[in-house]
Specification:
Alpha-Beta Plaits; 19% strand; Beta-Lactamase; single chain; 13 helices; five-stranded antiparallel beta sheet; 532 residues; alpha+beta
Length: 532
């Protein structure tokens, strides 16, 4: 501080000794002022650009998350609907086959009655199973009640009477005559020996079973989910409204999208029922004429984003006000810029050296000296992209120290760190090629990326690492082997395996093989089965 003060006093004395030259000072000040103004403009532009980019990017991220959510919900609904319809279809096929085998539908009524009563007991989704003769009279039912009823007036009965197709028919929901509940009829035609109409076999699925699944979905305040026949007949919709059952939505946006773009899709659409704009994902079932859809309202999707964007904009305005304040301060400090320029230059040089040192350390794990997680992620993504272009193989080894938590608990964290350093050294010595990368994946887990190495080579390296660690003979009383060991999993991406073009899939497979080694007794290597 004293040296700085003395230099300032000396500079002031020199200034006093030399007559001021105002024109020269103004010419010197103008470029600095112009540069400061440009810098201020650039910073404001950057702040504005960053604000716009952050707000827009967060909106896109929210939209992608919502898309993934609706797609997962649609996939879940499709799986549930397919399962229930498949159960009904198999049950119908079995009953029709028995009727065909017995040969006389009327004469086999008692045997069928006994069989039907057994079928739905363990299947909650099935509310009833019925057999009707050619006049619609009840021959048998799973409930054993209502034997005097007649269902000739039902649409599904009329359909089978006029259509000779042998497959299952899914009709519009109806109120069950036996239970009074809304049910989905799934039926099949029964033909006599000469092919003429002999009756109908019916399985009813309770809409309540669909309601349980649909109510478990997190659809927000204005979200919806439904399933319908692909001719536009609405079967069920959440929120449930009985008056909407059987509604024709064939002219709605989702049915139009299905007809125009195919069986699976996601898009922002406006619902026909309530005119609400939502992000819908829909799926058409593979074997059945049914389409399911789930939608999150645009209002719900972007509600949190709007709040966050407001906070970002307010923060940017505050930052802009701070920039203006700082700019004014800078302009007032231009007169004394020359006094501190030398010290700023020195600080800048030191900062550059510090940044260079940080850049050198950015890819290295501080404890083990191996590559860190960031370097690992970047390298693996790069090698997978290169493998996709060139067609060469890439192998990944994942390993971690067996019973490391117990090691830490017994020997302490200092010994734990020393153990990790020793294991890292064994890993590094076992990886011989310059293009391979050994990294600390996290905690006691390590990874090795080996571009151009097949499954056999990866297993050899993994086995070498396992043996090298075991050879360290680090005492570990909590391990069955008495020494520190590692478990390893090695996965290989071969040319043409398009299903694993991103790093997460390869990591997941290697990690699964690692846990296979752990579950098989530890201190071993697990690899994928060789290609045939």
């Amino acid at each position: 501080m004293h040296a700085v003060k003395d230099a300032a006093d000396k500079e002031a004395a020199n200034t006093d000794a030399v007559p001021a030259q105002p024109e020269v000072l103004r010419q010197h000040k103008r470029p600095v002022t112009a540069l400061a103004s440009i810098a201020f403009f650039v910073m404001c532009s950057m702040l504005l650009s960053m604000t716009v980019w952050i707000v827009w990017s967060s909106r896109e991220v929210r939209l992608r998350e919502a898309k993934a959510t609706t797609e997962n919900m649609a996939r879940t609904l499709a799986a549930q609907a397919y399962m229930e319809l498949e159960i009904a279809d198999v049950m119908l096929d079995d009953i029709v086959e028995q009727i065909r085998h017995d040969g006389n539908m009327d004469a086999s009524g008692e045997r069928l009655q006994s069989r039907l009563e057994q079928l739905p007991r363990n299947i909650a989704e099935i509310t009833g199973v019925f057999i009707f003769d050619r006049q619609g009279e009840w021959l048998a039912s799973s409930s054993g009640a209502g034997r005097d009823g007649n269902n000739a007036d039902r649409d599904y009965f009329t359909y089978h009477k006029t259509h000779a197709q042998p497959g299952s028919h899914i009709g519009a929901p109806v109120l069950s005559k036996s239970s009074g509940q809304w049910v989905l009829p799934v039926s099949r035609r029964v033909a006599s020996a000469d092919g003429s109409f002999a009756g109908v076999v019916l399985v009813t699925l309770g809409l309540a079973s669909f309601e349980r699944i649909y109510d478990s979905l997190n659809l927000g305040k204005l979200g919806t989910a439904f399933f319908a026949l692909d001719d536009g007949t609405l079967i069920y919709r959440r929120p449930f409204q009985a008056e909407l059952i059987g509604m024709d939505i064939s002219s709605g946006a989702i049915l139009r999208a299905y007809r125009e773009t195919g069986p699976v899709g996601t898009a922002m659409m406006t619902a026909k029922v309530d005119e609400t704009e939502r992000l819908y994902s829909y799926r058409h079932l593979r074997r059945f004429p049914v389409i399911v859809a789930a939608g999150l309202s645009k209002e719900d999707i972007f509600a949190e984003w709007r709040w966050l964007s407001t906070q970002i904009v307010l923060a940017s305005l505050a930052a802009g006000a701070a920039l203006i304040y700082l700019f004014r301060k800078v302009m007032r400090q231009i007169a004394v810029r020359d006094r501190i320029e030398a010290s700023l230059r020195q600080a800048s040089t030191q900062l550059q050296r510090a940044n260079a040192d940080l850049a050198a350390r950015a890819s290295q794990d501080g404890l083990t000296g191996l590559a860190n997680r960031r370097c690992f992620d970047e390298t693996l993504a790069h090698e997978l992209n290169r493998a996709q272009r060139s067609g060469h193989v890439v192998s990944l080894i994942m390993l971690d120290v067996d019973f490391f938590k117990k090691f830490n608990d017994q020997y302490g964290h200092v010994a734990g760190d020393a153990c990790l350093q020793a294991v890292a050294g064994a890993v590094a010595r076992s990886v011989g090629r310059a293009e391979d990368l050994a990294a600390r994946y996290g905690g006691e887990e390590f990874a090795v990326i080996m571009p151009g190495t097949g499954a056999a080579g990866a297993r050899d390296v993994a086995e070498a690492i396992r043996a090298a660690v075991e050879a360290l003979q680090l005492p570990h009383a909590a391990s069955a082997n008495g020494v520190v060991t590692v478990s390893l999993g090695a996965a290989t991406l071969r040319p043409g395996q398009e299903r694993r073009t991103d790093s997460s899939e390869l990591i997941r497979e290697a990690d699964a093989l690692l846990y296979q080694s752990k579950n098989s007794g530890r201190n071993r290597v697990s690899t994928e089965a060789p290609a045939a």
